[in-house]
Design goal:
Layout lengths: L4 E6 L9 H16 L8 E7 L7 H4 L4 E8 L9 E5 L17 H10 L10 E7 L12 H25 L7
Parallel strand pairs: 1-2, 1-3, 3-5
Antiparallel strand pairs: 4-5
């Protein structure tokens, strides 16, 4: 079973802006790898190509101490490119599920815990969701506005990932 921290990019790679979570996870991983040293990828697994949801997310989350999820969101309350940040403790309920047997993340986490899975606490699951227009058309690229915004959005997320790594790293020897 995996342990430590996880950066998980979520989205559909062929549904235009819905892929923003995948793109940002890859950008964050690149920045962390380039920084090396204590700010690098030590202790962090990056999955930047996850198109799963609901109950399927339990497997990659099991055994983790901290998780950073990056995904798209449609609230209709903010302009596209707005970065929303919350933890799983404040997770809004999903209004639209893929089918009647699907579960939103909050429900999946609750069920996983009831089944005895070792899942991180809700407060240890940071969620970054980028506002998008409803993704209704197939396309393998982000809209020009989101593509331009992606580097700045990734920089905002890098700090949280570094904090997650610091929270899950063992203390230095001799303490």
């Amino acid at each position: 079973m995996p342990t430590g921290a996880l950066l998980l990019g979520l989205g559909n790679p062929i549904l235009g802006d819905d892929a923003i979570g995948l793109r940002l996870a890859a950008l964050v991983a690149e920045r962390l790898a380039a920084s090396g040293g204590g700010g690098g990828l030590d202790g962090l697994e990056v999955i930047d190509d996850c198109s799963a949801g609901g109950l399927e997310l339990l497997e990659p989350l099991a055994g983790r101490t901290r998780v950073v999820l990056v995904d798209a969101i449609v609230t209709g309350c903010a302009p596209p490119g707005t970065l929303h940040r919350f933890t799983a403790a404040a997770l809004p309920r999903t209004r639209r599920l893929a089918g009647p047997h699907d579960a939103d993340l909050a429900t999946a986490l609750a069920l996983g815990r009831r089944l005895g899975l070792d899942l991180p606490a809700d407060e240890a699951i940071a969620i970054f969701a980028v506002e998008i227009e409803p993704a209704c058309e197939f396309g393998a690229t982000l809209s020009p506005d989101l593509e331009r915004a992606a580097p700045a959005l990734a920089e905002e997320i890098v700090g949280e990932v570094r904090a997650a790594l610091a929270a899950t790293s063992p203390p230095p020897a001799g303490r």
